[in-house]
Design brief:
- The chain has 147 residues and is mainly alpha-helical.
- It has 2 domains: 85 residues, Uncharacterised protein YqeY/AIM41, N-terminal domain (Hypothetical Protein Yqey, Chain: A, domain1, Orthogonal Bundle), CATH 1.10.1510.10; 51 residues, Arc Repressor Mutant, subunit A.
- Helix content is 77%, strand content 0%.
- The protein is built from 7 helices and no strands.
- The longest helix is centred in the middle third of the chain and has 24 residues.
Length: 147
């Protein structure tokens, strides 16, 4: 079953269960998908939808930090609940150990030996770990291993 179909089915279940947070979160994802499909006249693949969901998570995490600065705990909780629902539709994330092993492999392949080679490593790593590790984690791991 495609990710788009799973989202449609899950929103129906959330509506039947009266799970407002899950319903609204899935509707938000569906809105992002529909926006791109209509604007660009394309059919999104599961990989593209995963990238959209990751983008949505990142936006909500930024909102959480801004709400915390403004002492809006009510809005912080709402955003964090949405982040948890969004994460349900991402593939299982790599553990730090598996990410580190994969990064060491990439560093060896591209012949990186200093921070100057970070761009090469990040390019290869971003492609290899798309969907299973976010860019921030990849970046931190590269810095750690090249330092």
């Amino acid at each position: 079953m495609s990710l788009k179909q799973q989202l449609k089915d899950d929103v129906k279940v959330a509506m039947r269960e009266k799970n407002i947070v899950k319903r609204d979160s899935i509707r938000s994802i569906n809105t992002m998908i529909k926006q791109i499909e209509v604007d660009e006249r394309i059919e999104l693949t599961d990989d593209a939808i995963i990238k959209l969901i990751q983008k949505g998570i990142k936006q909500r995490e930024e909102a959480v930090s801004q709400y915390k600065e403004a002492n809006r705990d009510d809005l912080v909780g709402k955003e964090q609940e949405q982040i948890e629902v969004f994460k349900l539709y991402l593939p299982e994330q790599l553990s730090d150990e598996n990410l580190e092993n994969g990064m060491k492999e990439i560093i060896t392949q591209v012949g990186a030996n200093s921070m100057k080679d970070m761009g090469k490593v990040m390019g290869a790593a971003s492609k290899k770990f798309a969907g299973v590790a976010d860019g921030k984690r990849i970046n931190e791991m590269v810095k750690k291993l090249l330092a």
